[in-house]
Amino acid sequence: MLQAVKSANPGHGDEPWVGRSIERVEDAALLSGRGRFIDDLGVAPGTLHATILRSPHAHADILSIDAEAAKRLPGVAAVLTGADVKAVTTSLVVGVKAPVECWPIAMDRVRYVGEPVAVVVATDRARAEDAAELINVEYRPRGAVVDPLGAIAAGAPVLHDGFPGNLASDRSFRYGDPEKAFADAPHRFSIDIRYPRNSCTPIETYGVVASHDAGEDAYEVLANFQGPFSIHTVIARALKVPGNRLRLRTPPDSGGSFGVKQGVFPYIVLIAAAARITGRPVKWIEDRLEHLTASVSATNRATTLAAAVAADGKILALDWDQVEDCGAHLRAPEPATLYRMHGNLTGAYDISHVKVRNRVVVTNKTPTGLNRGFGGPQVYFALERLVHRIAIGLDLDPLDVIRRNLIGAGAFPYRTATGALLDSGNYQEAVARAVEQGRLAELKAKRDEARAEGRLYGIGFTAVVEPSVSNMGYITTVLTAAERRKAGPKNGAQATATVGLDPVGSVTVHVASVPQGQGHRTVLSQVVADVFGLEPKDIRVNTEIDTAKDAWSIASGNYASRFAAAVAGTAKIAAERVADRVARIAASQLNVEAADIVFAKGFVASKHNPENRIAFSRVAALSHWSPGSLPDDAGQTIRETAFWTPPELTPPDDDDRINSSLCHGFIFDFCGVEIDPTTLETRIDRYVTMHDCGTILHPGMVNGQIRGGFAQALGAALLEEYGYAEDGSFLTGTLADYLLPTTTEVPEPEIFHMETPSPFTPLGAKGVGEGNCMSTPVCLANAVADALGVADITLPLVPARLAELVRGAEPPPPAGAAVAPVREGDRRLRGEGQATVKGAPEQVWAMLLDPATLQSVIPGCQRVDKVTDRHFRADVTLGIGPVTGRYRADVELFDLDPPRAVTLRGGATGALGFGSAEGRITLAPDGNGGTKLTYSYDASIGGKVASIGGRLLDGATRVIIGQFFTALARKAGGGGAEGGGFSLFALLAKMASLFGGRR
Amino acid sequence: MTRLKADRRHAVRFSLNGKPVEAEAEPRMLLSDFLRHQLGATGTHVGCEHGVCGACTVVVDGMLTRSCLTLAAQVDGCELKTVEGIAPSADRLGVLQQAFRRNHALQCGFCTAGILMSLDHYLGKNPNPTEAEIRDLLSGHICRCTGYTPIIQAALDAAAELTSKKETSDA
Asked: Which residues of A522-553 are buried (b: 16+ CB within 10 A; e: fewer)?
């Protein structure tokens, strides 16, 4: 199953360490339970713990927050609301020019489910959570909008006055002469895409420990933040301190990130503010519900892409219309997801004319941020689906259309129409090798055979350029050239590395690369060992970052696949500078020219006379012990910090051409999938992925990145979507609702490599970690489209969605079993039923309006108060599965027709959510002296219960209604409830309650 | 059975990796939090707090157990094994751990403790597993880094090595 990689070969002398799959230095501790993740580290005595109360509403005004009871709870140090945070911070910067604020906590309005509303700080987490439940927030709901196109439609609820029509940015671009190309072309193809929301969901959640020194007004923060450290400036600004008063450190280990832990930064501001207000260190560890609901996600995007195409399939021009959904706030560095790929909108193809319209919109969903693939999946899904559609439209082989459009092997470095400078590659060769080594012919034969048997089998292809090492200036493409001139230049991508030699001559390396499991320490030990002629075990690498002491810049961090291309190369440069000086010192000791010096096997020696040598450690230590005896030109060898930024990363030019990334790997994928005709489950038969990521530093880790990216992409393609109801309720708050791939879904991809070194990076390496997140979702979609013979495919490819494609919409149920239709993402609860109760309608009517009776028959009811004759309030405790909570219900009566009918309308709120319901009850004599009650209800719920208990609600509702009727019947003196249950009040109260809380 | 008071801390005693341990816990404290924060056994990680991801898996009285779905008070008097207990000594890795390192079966290492516990427990009872059996076993664990196949390879490697060692020592 696993393919062999070039295996480690320790002990053999002269072969470089770089390029070998040595065992990782990180692993022994991680395998023994000795990792040092943020929640594994101790905190200062007296550290307080925070919990965050979050909005159950997608869009609402906060009318009041009553935290008095919470503050009185023993152990509670403080309850912070928006106003408290505002007093010590300022708004986070927003990535576009607009009069809009972006706070880490709601000020007077919530705009997404999960938005922080209050922070409770207490002596321990459990007490903080107890207190959070006692906070009473009064909301006035507003209309919500979750669809990006709906958000910019006329009449949509507006989230921010500074973004009229919810439009944060609208830019149009034109490269070449697209209008003419479209006018002249014989064919035009177009595709509409909805790319879903998903997230790479690291298994370790966010964590922050913050403290504040009031004397110096300085913050110290430990967080599993991943960069980019441009965000350090955003945090410092929000905390109203200069950068040197925000010391940001990272823990030694981080449990995965995939971009997502960039999104911890608003919480850094929040927890730092809590530390300042309480005067004590404060720690916060995010829980899984918080992470799924409110951490950060990739953007969803609505795209229309059109191509002007020649008869032979050659693409002459592209016309992009992208509507990017960044959620409720445009948080830094958004709208970067949209612009990261700007130089690469023509993919792997030679296309001269491009038109682009980019709109960025806000919706009532969680704000977006970094996520593996960052903009690539959205772009390539449209482009590579379109290429398949062109092939079908022209009756060509998709692979032929890909080949016809690939950039020529002799064209590198190649400038794309939109400005990227593709560094190197030979795409034709890569495709040819993949077709042969990956046995495409065999796969095609298999498809033919399967289809002959009537099975659903398809093949998909994708060709993708994988950008890496982001230009710090690409995001300014969202500004006009005039705005950019005003703002000042932004470009480059500073990488940094420090190499030090200690007094016994051992080597230490430090980089600002902030890995989350990628094995940077191991690879750097290989790179530096090669420079000094040592072994990796002789090199100790530290990848923690401390902004108060270390060399770093805004580009520092672990994102945009920059490690191998930028950071590892910079470490090589730093080591070479030190080695150059060590060589001069050794030359004077050995009486040879510096040019004659070679580093090998722990010695510094003369090339011509290898016996003339001196131990590396001995020369290396001289700067410490005997600086006076060093040659004058040698300088010190104690420590060298190198900075490296590629000159190719220039700012956008006046025509908006942008070299958005430094390196461009190439990926060509194809796969065979089979779809079960009964269950419509997609099974990957074989997946082939060819990569050219330049020079490979560690084959095992490169393949590890490819497999990991592939598995996440498989999840994005087949399983994962952050679900929202139309009212903005978040529906996928557990890992039982947001399904991730497991061992039973993920096959081993067949990985092939080609190495075309990048001429722009010190080691010739390019990024590799994100490519399959870009190529695999669309490759699988192309295969499924091929298998089913359908034109439109939307991710994720869950069986229910494929069933609609293949069989059409679900037919209505047979007559007589009328049930209200349930739409996808619909969390409304509807039902109707009947019950028979002893006693005449007049008697039952009186019972239904009597608080004491109601209190005794409503399940879990503590009390019922009659506010007016037509207005009741009730406190009820209700449990759904493991989720039990207290709710306060308000019910009003309308359309009273005593004793025949009444309409009830009301709502309930509690710590776990809210709900509203309307019900109509009619009473009629049953002919036996009793009363026949007929009822119908329509309820909707939101908040935590909608996120985590959605699957249980319908059943639970029926049970509760049944309990109400049984109790009512008993109270009335016999009889029984039929048909499940009714209630009106109970219904409302209960239902309303359903949505509520737990504990 | 002793009735615990909700607002009190109660002593919880058990055997952790062969050594007696004792600390106090409120009745509502989870075993995962107890291990990590009261006993300092931070090798067991918490990923989802609702029993899906498997990162917190430990062995209680010979049974695989999600420590995030177990109360500390429930394991009073039990025998527990966690990831800290599977290496032969602090500076040596066991066969399974070595196989993980050799096969690059971990990246960030956060989910790894739970996976090691499931495999350690399973291989002890099923020395010759098939790939399908390992996939089935590990379907209760989520790893976001590796794509799983190196983990499965490591498990099969370890099983083969353990079997051959056993045969050698039996001979």
From this structure: bbbbbbbbbbbbbbbebbbbbbbbbbeebbbb
